[in-house]
Amino acid sequence: MKINIQQDDNYTTIGLDGAVDLSSSSDARKNIIEVLKENKNILIDLSLVSYIDSSGVASLVEGYQIAKKQSLKFGLFGVSDAAMSVLKLARLDQVFPIYNSKDEYEKEDV
Amino acid sequence: MSESIVHRFLNYIEIVGSSTVKLVEGAGYYFALLIESLAWIIVGPFYKQPVRVPSIFSQMMTIGIAACPIVFILSFSIGVMLAIQMIYNLKTFGAESQVVVGVALSITREFAPLITGILIAGRTGSALAAKLGTMQVNQEIDALRVMGINPVRYLVSPALLAMLIMVPILTFFADIAGLLGGALYTGVEIGLSFSAYVDRTIAALTAGDIMQGLFKSLIFALIITLVGASNGFSVTGGAEGVGKATTRSVVLSISFIVIADMIFTYFLNR
Amino acid sequence: MQENKKNIAIEVNDLVTHYGPRKILDGINLTVSEGEIMIIMGGSGSGKSTLLRYLLGLGVPTMGSIKLLGKDITKLNANEMFELRKNMGVAFQGGALLSSMTIGENVKLPLREHAELDEKTMDIMARMKLEVVNLGGFEELMPSELSGGMIKRAAVARAIVMDPKLMFFDEPSAGLDPVVSAELDDLILRLRDAMNMTIVVVTHELDSAFKIADRITVLDRGHILMSDTVEEIKNSDNERIQSLLNRRPSNEAINADEYLSRLTGM
Q1: Residue range C8-248, CATH number
Q2: Closest residue on chain B to C53 (Cα)
Q3: What is the ipTM of this complex?
Q4: Which Pfam family, any one of them, does this sequence belong to (chain A) (predicted)?
Q5: I need a surface site. Which of A38, B235, C167, C249 has the fewest CB within 10 A?
């Protein structure tokens, strides 16, 4: 898995690329938490994710909870059908703010 | 007629043969279990399957700390009992004061390791057999295996390590308790002061005496763990099977301990 | 579902097994495709539980091969088997939770042993899986404090915590009331749909089998009678399958000589 971090005006995009699984999810988690520590809004780009398992989802859950506590904006973008069904299994599709495009994320306020 | 005698003889041979096979099989199984548990302790970490330290400590707590009071009481009583017997015997020769040497050597070389071993066999060996047996019956052992968790590494190795550490420590504790029992009784009976008793005990004992006892206790720790674990693993037939395995493991452990004690005592004192 | 050329997840070839001198399974051939739900059915003593044990790699067969995810488990070394087991989840009949640990610790156990994850991540994963089986908030309880149905569901949570590709259920509905057992059936279907798991279920509950099966394999006295879709099984004219489906005791004609010799032992 590769991680691409891109800074925009008022948010940071973390792009996950490849398989987010037991061996790589702790890396993703570390990056997400780091960005949140800098008090930045965050958008997770999952459009290049080939596979995401529960450990990856767990990292997203943890990140979202931290963001909420700090009143930061957190969003998922480019969720594939496969990833969506993993989220749906634990009913997390109703929890995460999921966006269809970057614009949609940018326009919405916290 | 002669045919039936031959037949009976052959039958007898077969019984001897099959029980020998069973015995060798059993011994082989204990040995294999020993090698496997030791192997996990040593090479487990390299295969990312280490023996977990917390579980060793929790076992050490249950084996060791919890057994202290009963070990103290039993060993103390044996110390008193030895002092009574020896003073009675030595009176015949008017050598009551030699009781100190007698008690010191008997306790450290023989009675402390033996009583500790027997106690731990009844307490921890049976608990191990019952625990593994129940797990076997409830398919928990199978569950561990399908999760890729080797049951020997997960259950036997920590127990073995904990036993190898705690049984000698308990034995040393039993040494002290037994000597204390002897000292108190001797003080009351022939008026030997406590400090004089301690001085004479220290003079009478060599490091070898204590080491001999501790070495035997290591062997007992191995016996108790391996007999308990293998009886637990081999449980079949539900709750009744667990009960049988527990009983068998205690009886076997104690028998092996006494026999091993005899053999090692013989060789260690040549 | 099985018709559209899918990868084969489980392939058993000419499996023969013995228990002591007694032959239990004889000439078993079975394939399960990826994402398929295969039900193994049969009366007691048919060998279905034995077949499951061998599929789980808990026994050494006399003959034949068992391929899971393309790897022949009868030939794997310990390390390869260890790796393969990360992709397998098993829900045992009685749950087989470790009684000395809380539900949460039980669910986390495979993660602890197989993955190097942050404690927090493991906690969240375990709780997520407990939510999936509707046991959210139960992680602090001990197995002894749960009912039979809850223990079975907790066992499912533990089995799926590593997101396995293969999932095995041993008698999921045994000992459960109809409502709880229907819930478990739904859970099995949801797992397959969400994660495309390949699922093997050993059961003798017909209703549940018909509801969730893509295909059913009927075992009888160590042989496979039939391995086909629900419809085909229902329409089968095999007498023993029909007696199993209609819960009739088998009433075969008696071979007098054989019967006598069985009774007298001569």
Answers
A1: 3.40.50.300
A2: B142
A3: 0.87
A4: STAS
A5: C249
